[in-house]
Amino acid sequence: MNALERRLKARIKQIEIFLLLFVTVFPAFAQTNPVIDIFPEGTILHGNLAYNNDTLHKHLLDIYLPANAKGKLPLVIFIHGGGWLSNDKYADMGYMKKTVVEIISNGYALASIDYRHSTQAIFPAQIQDCNRAVSFLYDNADKYGFDREHFAVMGFSAGGHLASLVSLSENDDIHAFYMPGTSKLFSFKAVVDFYGPSELILFPGYDENSPEALLIGAAPLERPDLAKAASPVTYVDKNDPPFLIIHGEKDELVSTKHSQLLSSWLSVTGVQNELIIVKDAPHFGVMFDSDELRNKVMNFLKEHLK
């Protein structure tokens, strides 16, 4: 190897080290945020924050703050859908663009979290991850400018299930729902549940490859004990936060019975809630970002977060 080749090799090595350090020190640059253009101009992004002090790709969250934010901000936490086995923290924002813009424009912070898929770890891993992520946000509220006393959670489909579960079980101290070291000091002022499953036993059949079976490790009808432990309605009590529940009339993946049952349990227990069945709407899509529904969501958040 001549002198020129040695210098070239050394230079390449320097570049490799620089790139490695750059990605390590500035992890948000390691992955381009595909939804940032949805947000109002000037939105501040804290991307790909590791909420469990590990290197798991599914233990990351993003924080979005309004431009020129002052004081402590109420926080809306997004939990994505995908049958507990697909999608990521950017999912659902694509068809809820106007709602996302409204949240930031009205002075709320927004955090979107990832969690382990059922193909990586079965329940309760998903709720453990959600609780750990919320704990991280609570513990770092001063750093990012959140108001600890004004947290809301919003979820879609499987994320609606997890949003309901994380909020309803919060005051029940279910040890198995928390990783070691997770703070239990947080609470929620409001919950927005978009077409989330509420009672796993309502899913028909004995298909062991169904999303709900993959979630708990067995078909709900075969293991009703596991289904009950993973069902939000199990944890309803009079001290739960208010709910806004939205479901498509023609949902062929999650029956409207799930939302109707959850609303009924909340009502008979004395928890404030509103159920909206959206005429002709499917399981998900832009119909849920309509002016009417967006106003409902924003008025609900305003009532309970400000």
Question: What is the distance, rounded to the nearest whole angstrom, between the alpha carbons of the first and last residues?
Answer: 69 Å
| Major sheet attributes | 8 strands, mixed
Structure summary, number of beta strands: 8
Q: Which fold name is given in CATH as the topology of the largest domain? A: Rossmann fold
Rough outline:
globular
Structural class: alpha/beta
Characterise the protein shown here:
The protein is of the alpha/beta class and 306 residues long. The chain has 2 domains: 30 residues; 271 residues, Alpha/Beta hydrolase fold, catalytic domain (Rossmann fold, 3-Layer(aba) Sandwich), CATH 3.40.50.1820. The protein has an 8-stranded mixed β-sheet, sandwiched between helices. The longest helix is centred in the N-terminal third of the chain and has 23 residues. The chain is globular and about 55 Å long. 43% of the residues are buried. About 9% of the residues have low confidence.
Concise summary:
With about 300 residues, the chain is an alpha/beta fold. It is about 35% helix and about 15% strand.
Keywords:
306 residues; alpha/beta; Rossmann fold; 2 domains; eight-stranded mixed β-sheet; 9 helices; 8 strands; globular
Spell out the blueprint of helices and strands.
Layout (H helix, E strand, L loop, with lengths): L2 H23 L18 E7 L9 E6 L7 E7 L17 H9 L3 E5 L11 H15 L1 H4 L1 E11 L1 H11 L21 E5 L16 H6 L7 H6 L13 E6 L7 H14 L3 E6 L12 H15 L1
Parallel strand pairs: 3-4, 3-5, 5-6, 6-7, 7-8
Antiparallel strand pairs: 1-2, 2-4
